[in-house]
Specification:
It is built from one helix and ten strands, in the order αββββββββββ. It is mainly beta. The longest helix has 5 residues. This is Signal peptidase I.
Length: about 130
C-alpha cells in the first residue's frame, strides 16, 4: 500500500472489523482512515437486530439495501427496505435501530466519522 491505494473485497474485509471498511477507526495514514465519513458492509442473518437503539445521533447516515429484507426503526416510524437499491437517509438527532427480516446485505455511509456509538462487541447483535 505504498502508493496510497487499497484494493480489497467488502465481504472479506468487513469480516475483519465488524463490517467497517472506512472511518476514523482505521489505521491513521492509510487510505481507509477518514474523519469525514464511515462506510460499512453489513451482512446480517435473518432475525438479527441491533442490541440497543442509537440515541443522540450526531451524524447523518445513508443505508442502502443490497440484498434481503431489512427494517429500520425510528421513533414513531418503521421503514422496510425490500427491493435491491431501496434506501433510507436520516439526520442528526434521529434515534434508530434495525432488524434483518431476511438474510440481508446493506451498505451504510455515515458522516462525519466520530467515536462513541459502538455497542460493546459481546452485545452487538441480538437474534430474535
Amino acid at each position: 500500500m505504498e502508493d496510497g491505494v487499497y484494493v480489497g473485497n467488502a465481504g472479506k474485509d468487513a469480516a475483519l472489523d465488524r463490517g467497517w471498511l472506512l472511518g476514523h477507526f482505521k489505521e491513521p495514514g492509510g487510505p481507509r482512515h477518514s474523519q469525514a465519513v464511515e462506510v460499512k458492509w453489513g451482512v446480517h442473518p435473518r432475525g438479527e437486530q441491533r442490541a440497543q437503539w442509537v440515541k443522540g445521533e450526531v451524524r447523518t447516515a445513508l443505508l442502502v439495501l443490497i440484498t434481503g429484507r431489512f427494517r429500520m426503526e425510528f421513533p414513531g416510524r418503521s421503514v422496510l427496505l425490500e427491493e435491491q437499491g431501496d434506501y433510507v437517509v436520516w439526520g442528526q438527532g434521529v434515534d434508530h435501530s434495525w432488524v434483518a427480516e431476511d438474510e440481508s446485505v446493506v451498505l451504510t455511509v455515515r458522516w462525519p466519522s466520530v467515536a462513541g456509538y459502538a455497542v460493546p462487541q459481546d452485545e452487538e447483535r441480538a437474534g430474535s
